[in-house]
Amino acid sequence: MTAMVRLEGEQVVVRSLTDADHGALETAMASPGVRAWWWDFDIGDFARHTTEPDVEPFVIEHADDVVGYLQVSEEDSAQYRFAGIDLALRDDAQGRGLGSDAVRTIARFL
């Protein structure tokens, strides 16, 4: 990632990941509701997931608290463009519209 990104949604802030975020994100990724879907995400090797060359990692904040992780990948070809968006929210942040707000926020950016 070349520049730090900070995007404000209606309820959340989606921003570039920093090294200081790893502890909060490991907690979010260890939530049972997240592990049910991201079972192959190695939380012991979080840095590897966030430094993949084709993936842009972001954190999701709500009320100045890191509540989740979002990653995007983009494909740019002569025929089409598309983006992949993966999202994980701590169990206590689910069901409140925060994920939808994060997806809308990052989609506008992409």
How is this structure best described in words?
With 110 residues, this protein is α+β, with helices and mostly antiparallel strands. Helix content is 25%, strand content 32%. It contains four helices and five strands, in the order ββαααβββα. Strands 1-2-3-4-5 form a five-stranded antiparallel sheet, with helices on both faces. The chain is globular and about 40 Å long. The mean pLDDT is 88.
Please tag this protein with its features:
single chain, 110 residues, alpha+beta, 5-stranded antiparallel β-sheet, 5 strands, globular
Distance between the termini: 14 Å
Contiguous low-pLDDT stretches (5 residues minimum) are none
Classify the beta-strand content into a percent band: 25-35%
Described by the principal axes of the CA atoms, the overall outline is globular
Content-based structural category: alpha+beta
> Please, what is the average pLDDT?
88
Short structural summary:
The protein is α+β, with helices and mostly antiparallel strands and 110 residues long. It has four helices and five strands, in the order ββαααβββα. The relative contact order is 0.23.
Annotate the secondary structure layout.
Blueprint lengths: L5 E3 L4 E4 L5 H8 L2 H4 L10 H4 L6 E7 L2 E12 L4 E9 L8 H12 L1
Antiparallel strand pairs: 1-2, 2-3, 3-4, 4-5
